[in-house]
Amino acid sequence: MIIFRVIAVLTVLGAGFISAVLSSKIAISKTSDRIFSLGNAFAGGIFLGTGLVHMLPVAHDGFRELTGSHNLPWISILAALGFFIALFFRRVLAYEKKALSDSVKGGIGRRFSPHMLAISFSAHSIIIGIALGTENTLKKGLALLIAILVYKISAVFALEVNLHRFGLSKSKLKKLNATFLYMTPLGIIMGSTLTTLLTGRAEQLITTTFDALAAGTFLYIALIDIIEEEFIKVTDKWFKFILVVFGFATMAAITVRL
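Now predict its structure.
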């Protein structure tokens, strides 16, 4: 698994760097919002499948091996904790109130605080990175790596689009992007260190805990950040629905085959 983790770190870094370069060019185009919206819908299905079909069952199996019980609520509690952590960073810290445009007078909308947005992405990246770093089988690790790559690509583009909207300088854009890009590899290294220092039941407990936390964060991103937000918009609803279902089916198929 050490070789796999090294490959995972390099792959995530490479995907993040390529995504950042492409996103910086797409983000300034007139079609960036539609491209992001459609890609986001597909990613939402991937994250929903990762949380429900892969991460939660893996976490349940891990706790069952530790305790011998099938009916413990700890996995649901930990998944909810991961959901709340994502909710705190994404909707409490990362949003600021502002007046809407003149077309909706008197309304209150939300906009991203660019630095807090980068922090919220980074917090989730560390959690899923640790979850990947603590995985002890190639099958589980590969399925999670696929989901992380999809997340990294979509998150980098979302971050780039929103940072461009704020008119940040190129130097600030690079710094915020770099901070986000290195968080998942950092999480993988942290998870690998934990599994090296711990053995037996302690290692399995850490692995299972972060599997459950990661499941909660993936479910939050799929349901609240993506699916809810994307279907508020009136355009491309049928196409986006198909992409969500296709993304879920893709991740389910990958999980079953692995």
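The chain has nine helices and two strands.
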